[in-house]
Design a protein that fits this description.
The complex is a heterodimer. By secondary structure, chain A is α/β, with parallel strands linked by helices. Helix content of chain A is 35%, strand content 27%. Chain A contains eleven helices and 14 strands. In chain A, the strands form three sheets. Chain A has a six-stranded mixed β-sheet with strand order 6-7-8-3-9-10, with helices on both faces. Chain A has a four-stranded antiparallel β-sheet with strand order 2-1-4-5. Chain A has a four-stranded antiparallel β-sheet with strand order 12-13-11-14, sandwiched between helices. Chain A is elongated. In chain B, helix 7 runs antiparallel to helix 13 and helix 9 crosses helix 10. In chain B, strand 1, helix 3 and strand 2 form a beta-alpha-beta unit. Chain B has two domains: 231 residues, no CATH class; 120 residues, abc type-2 transporter like domain (abc type-2 transporter like fold). In chain B, 64% of the residues lie in helices and 8% in strands. Chain B is α/β, with parallel strands linked by helices. The chains are: A alpha/beta, B alpha/beta.
Chain lengths: 322, 378
């Protein structure tokens, strides 16, 4: 593992985030366990995991809002433990919940944030941001009166005012309609193309697929990371698609077969996955012998992979891990 | 680490502007700022009666004869007076000015002789009348004492009561000759209202940010704790000064309260007092998890301030432990300062014994506040 941020990795790009062994406890809860994360400059890095898995805490550790109990590493070449003040001035952090001041107008919010970061030519920067947002005519409206999609766009604009080198987005598209989500991701890709590193946490698979690389975190532990293909490949999952009529009720009986680790419904088809390819195939063939249903092997999707990972979490919890 | 080393005026100004904008939008708070002083002024302007005892009293003894001594003993036995000592006239005056004694009783030269001859010698009683409630009972007792103490010992009066009182009791109501209780209540009200609104509003200011989630955004900016704390305090200092002006103006018009001392000095003292309350409010808000807790803590502080500071009940009338608690509270000292300046025309040198406890309070609470301010979300 490279300890220095300036060390170039195999892809040739320097690392924007390079941390290892980060730990954080709240009381006796171990929220983040030995987190090691490497994010290359200019890439869009997806951060996935179920609710309460420690994603938000991890992001807060990275931008200096929380001090790690142990661990070391760097963010934008600065020490995450000692230099949190300097990291803050180069990071744009968009909180999960809308955290701008609802009793201030759109313009006042932007102006305040610009003052906090000491943005040069503040007035101009705010005016430009308002125009880019398309909110120039509504600048005096209170931020609290905006709809979810607009709040999200305003929050993003306020994060970008000080031209950060790194964007940390904590579930930015929660509760936003599909059109706004698509626009949002177009914007993220434009920013990435301009050289800004983006770390984004999400629950949505389509968003995960839009990231350059991914990490899956569960109960504070990093379970998988890499490109979408690498993450899927590392699980060595074999998936069969079963299609036909009258699929309901089938999922439950298939679940009990040897070699079947996961059954998930996808519209008019079932995806059945397991790691032991031979066992899975024989189980399915015997079960479906004589039925009109069709089965064919398919490459496992990212969603299959993540549902598999989440099942693993449940097993872990059920077996009394935490 | 340079935790407080880099203070950015630009950032600080930003916080200041933001606080003012938010205050402007918050109509209810604004109503509170104007409404509370007026309402309380009218309510408390006509209030509360008590009958305190054990008032500190100095005795100026120009004639230490047996009559004088038995008179002093009788005063003590009445339980209204605690004789702090027998001193000379200049010292007594100073004690009265500083508010350390409430009464000075002066026995003139030849008191014993004149009394024995039935010449009704003059007994001068100077009373600190800034709090007329506090001296009402004591003064009425004093006028009875003359007869009771001396009648049995005076020759020729054993069988028939004397035609005239044996002593000529002269009471000087110092600082408030008419004994108006509003004179006492209104300056006190300045302190009470400041305590209430300053602690409460600043207490809410920070917890509101935490409750609405905006604190996270504030923490994600490079703003330092000192910038945030002071940036949030300044608007309330200005509000506090406005409130004081409002009360003083109203009390001048409605109750005709005199302003004997320096108005500038009064405002300077008000500023200290506001700071004391604001630092407490900010500290409360950095400890409280939500606005409700912050309110509760404010009440927890406000009640003893109201009851033990000498606003509701005369300070000397309280038991020792209550006085000990009271003397920690900034309001106790501010009441003495405000009454001293408004009614007695006290200057800085007399007020100093009550200024440093306020400064000490600010220092201790501010240190606690900076320590508990959570720069991170831990």
């Amino acid at each position: 593992m490279c300890a220095s941020p300036e060390t170039e990795n195999d892809m040739g790009a320097p690392l924007a985030i390079d941390v290892s062994g980060l730990n954080k406890h709240f009381g006796d809860k171990h929220v983040v366990k030995n987190l090691a994360l490497q994010v290359r400059e200019g890439e869009i890095f997806g951060f996935l995991g179920p609710n309460g898995s420690g994603k938000t805490t991890s992001i807060r550790l990275l931008c200096g809002l929380l001090t790690p109990d142990s661990g070391q590493g760097s963010c934008l070449g600065l020490d995450v433990v000692k230099d949190s003040a300097r990291i803050k001035s180069q990071v744009g952090y968009m909180t999960q919940r809308f955290s701008l001041w609802e009793d201030l107008s759109i313009e006042e919010n932007l102006d305040f944030v610009a003052r906090m970061f000491g943005v040069p030519d503040r007035r101009q920067a705010v005016t430009r941001a308002l125009e880019e947002l398309g909110l120039a005519s509504r600048r005096r409206q209170l931020a609290g009166a905006l709809s979810g999609g607009w709040k999200q766009r305003l929050a993003l604009a306020s994060c970008l005012l000080h031209r950060p080198r790194l964007l940390l987005l904590d579930e930015p598209t929660a509760g936003v309609d599909p059109k706004a989500r698509r626009d949002f991701w177009e914007e993220i890709h434009r920013l990435s193309a301009a050289g800004i590193t983006v770390l984004v946490s999400t629950h949505y698979m389509d968003e995960a697929e839009r990231c350059h690389r991914l990490a899956y975190i569960s109960y504070g532990q990093l379970l998988a990371s890499g490109t979408a293909e690498e993450v899927v490949g590392s699980l060595r999952l074999n998936t069969w698609e079963i299609s036909g009529q009258k699929l309901h009720g089938l999922a439950e009986s298939l679940q009990r077969l040897p070699g079947v680790e996961m059954v998930a419904s996808f519209g008019a088809a079932l995806h059945v996955s397991g790691r032991d390819a031979a066992l899975l195939q024989t189980s399915l063939e015997t079960a479906l012998a004589g039925s009109p249903l069709e089965m064919r092997p398919i490459p496992p999707s990212l969603e299959d992979a993540f549902i598999h990972l989440m099942r693993g979490d449940q097993d872990q919890t059920a077996s009394g891990g935490h | 680490m340079g935790r407080f080393s880099s203070f950015s005026v630009a950032r600080w100004l930003g916080i200041l502007i933001k606080e003012f904008l938010q205050l402007k939008r918050d109509r209810l708070t604004f109503g509170m700022i104007v409404g509370i002083p007026i309402l309380q002024l009218l309510l408390f302007g006509f209030a509360i009666n008590t009958d305190p005892r054990h008032l500190p009293t100095a005795v100026v003894m120009a004639d230490p004869g047996p009559f004088a001594r038995s008179y002093v003993a009788a005063m003590e036995n009445s339980s209204y007076f605690d004789i702090v000592g027998s001193i000379d006239a200049r010292e007594a005056d100073a004690l009265l000015d500083e508010g350390r004694v409430k009464f000075v009783v002066t026995f003139p030269p030849g008191f014993h002789r004149d009394l024995a001859r039935g010449l009704s010698p003059t007994l001068l009683v100077e009373a600190d009348a800034t709090d007329p409630m506090a001296m009402g009972g004591a003064l009425s007792v004093l006028s009875q004492l003359g007869l009771q103490v001396f009648a049995p010992d005076l020759p020729g009066t054993r069988h028939s009561p004397p035609p005239s009182p044996p002593v000529d009791l002269r009471v000087h109501r110092r600082y408030n000759p008419e004994g108006l209780s509003t004179y006492n209540v209104v300056p006190g009200l300045v302190g009470v209202i400041l305590t209430m609104t300053m602690v409460l509003m600043t207490g809410l200011a920070m917890t509101r940010e935490r409750e609405r989630g905006t604190f996270e955004n504030l923490l994600a900016t490079p703003a330092t704790p000192l910038e945030v704390l002071t940036g949030k305090i300044i608007p309330y200092i200005i509000i506090g000064l406005l409130q004081v002006t409002l009360i003083l103006t109203a009390s001048r018009w409605i109750f005709d309260i005199p302003i004997r001392g320096s108005l500038l000095l009064l405002y300077a003292m008000v500023l200290f007092f506001i700071c004391a309350n604001l630092t407490l409010g900010i500290t409360i808000s950095s400890i409280a998890r939500n606005q409700l807790q912050s309110m509760q803590m404010t009440v927890f502080f406000f009640l003893p301030s109201l009851l033990l500071s000498g606003f509701m009940f005369p300070f000397q009338a309280m038991p020792g432990w209550a006085q000990a608690i009271g003397s920690v509270l900034p309001l106790t000292h501010f009441l003495i300062i405000a009454r001293g300046i408004l009614l007695k025309g006290n200057g800085l040198e007399l007020l100093w014994p009550h200024i440093w406890p306020i400064l000490l309070f600010i220092g201790v609470v501010l240190a606690a506040g900076l320590k508990t301010y959570r720069r991170t979300l831990d």
